[in-house]
């Protein structure tokens, strides 16, 4: 038996369609055009690609897209001043500061400067706390939210009671992923680099979310037959004798696809859903700021 390969591009396209319809309604009924500001510091080529894709898709959904590109050497106080201007700009409903930031900038300080109401990444401590306390109004981080939407679809909404293993404990993916799965009433385990006998733990899981940053770490013989495996990894690897770098996940796809019930590919899995969730969060944020109800929640 081979796994159902989850089509993240198609799922993202459907979500963006819904977002676009909601944007048209907000424009027509309230003259409310949701706006997203993306701040990019430095000129990392991969980051530039993501930011360009975000901008394109934001505009395609009928929203306003603002891009701010700052020099890699920008002083921290200039970045903080820009965040402050965006916080006070009524045309901006969502703010995303692309991570990672250069070493001379205190990342936590910048994230905490973003108005929590405009924090569409869900990285501000206020939103982290809201997610942890189960506040339905919490802005949840886009990557884990995208994973959750794909999992709901795979399980026909019946995530309740499933054994979920999250591999990785970052603030951006692992921890919020665990919170979202807990909210779905999964039995959640968080594994990390110090976990003992990870393969044995993994074999008990009905759901595996791999966010380790280690290319192809999760092997086929770690997977319980029929389990659903979500691959959050994006690793650019140069193979011997190949001109271009290849994108591989944290899951050994060729092995896992033979055992799992369903799995996400890289590319074309979690990545596209991440961006679609960013658009969704921006529309939800705009509605909350204007005090109108949102068709996307
Ligand atoms: N504040 C902040 N928020 C983020 O959400 C954030 C960030 N910083 N920094 C960088 C990471 C990375 N990220 C991706 C989004 C989409 C794809 C994506 O669409 N990937 C395509 C492939 C793209 C390619 O070919 O490189 C795919 O997986 O199919 C990838 C990566 C968001 N991030
Ligand atoms: Mg880790």
TrEMBL record:
It catalyses: (6R)-5,10-methylene-5,6,7,8-tetrahydrofolate + NADP(+) = (6R)-5,10-methenyltetrahydrofolate + NADPH; (6R)-5,10-methenyltetrahydrofolate + H2O = (6R)-10-formyltetrahydrofolate + H(+). GO terms for biological process: L-histidine biosynthetic process; methionine biosynthetic process; purine nucleotide biosynthetic process; tetrahydrofolate interconversion. CDD domains: NAD_bind_m-THF_DH_Cyclohyd. InterPro entries: Aminoacid_DH-like_N_sf, NAD(P)-bd_dom_sf, THF_DH/CycHdrlase, THF_DH/CycHdrlase_cat_dom, THF_DH/CycHdrlase_CS, THF_DH/CycHdrlase_NAD-bd_dom. Gene3D superfamilies: Leucine Dehydrogenase, chain A, domain 1, NAD(P)-binding Rossmann-like Domain. One of its GO terms (cellular component) is cytosol. Its EC number is 1.5.1.5, 3.5.4.9. Pfam families: THF_DHG_CYH, THF_DHG_CYH_C. Residues 141-287 form the Tetrahydrofolate dehydrogenase/cyclohydrolase NAD(P)-binding domain. Residues 6-121 form the Tetrahydrofolate dehydrogenase/cyclohydrolase catalytic domain. One of its GO terms (molecular function) is methenyltetrahydrofolate cyclohydrolase activity. It comes from the Bacteria. NCBIfam families: PRK14186.1 (NF010783), PRK14188.1 (NF010785). Belongs to the tetrahydrofolate dehydrogenase/cyclohydrolase family. This is Bifunctional protein FolD. The lineage of its organism: Bacteria, Pseudomonadati, Pseudomonadota, Gammaproteobacteria, Cellvibrionales.
């Amino acid at each position: 038996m081979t796994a159902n390969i989850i089509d993240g591009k198609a799922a993202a396209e459907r979500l963006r369609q819904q977002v676009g319809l909601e944007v048209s309604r907000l424009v027509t009924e309230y003259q409310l055009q949701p706006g997203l500001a993306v701040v990019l510091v430095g000129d990392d080529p991969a980051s530039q690609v993501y930011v360009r894709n975000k901008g394109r898709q934001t505009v395609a959904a009928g929203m306003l897209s603002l891009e701010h590109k700052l020099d890699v050497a920008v002083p921290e106080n200039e970045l903080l001043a820009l965040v402050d201007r965006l916080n006070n700009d009524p045309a901006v409903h969502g703010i995303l500061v692309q991570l990672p930031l250069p070493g001379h900038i205190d990342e936590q300080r910048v994230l905490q400067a973003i108005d929590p109401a405009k924090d569409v990444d869900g990285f501000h401590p206020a939103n982290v706390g809201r997610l942890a306390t189960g506040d339905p109004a919490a802005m949840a981080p886009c990557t884990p939210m995208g994973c959750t939407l794909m999992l709901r679809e795979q399980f026909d909404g019946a995530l309740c009671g499933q054994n979920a293993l999250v591999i990785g404990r970052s603030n951006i993916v692992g921890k919020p992923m665990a919170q979202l799965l807990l909210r779905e009433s999964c039995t959640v385990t968080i594994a990390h680099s110090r976990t003992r006998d990870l393969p044995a733990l993994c074999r008990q899981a009905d759901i595996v979310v791999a966010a380790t940053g280690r290319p192809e770490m999760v092997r086929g013989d770690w997977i319980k037959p029929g389990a659903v495996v979500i691959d959050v990894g994006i690793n650019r690897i140069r193979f011997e004798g190949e001109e271009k770098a290849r994108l591989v996940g944290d899951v050994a796809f060729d092995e896992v696809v033979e055992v799992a019930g369903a799995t996400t590919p890289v590319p074309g899995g979690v990545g596209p859903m991440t961006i679609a969730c960013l658009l969704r969060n921006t529309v939800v944020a705009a509605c909350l700021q204007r005090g109108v109800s949102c068709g996307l929640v």
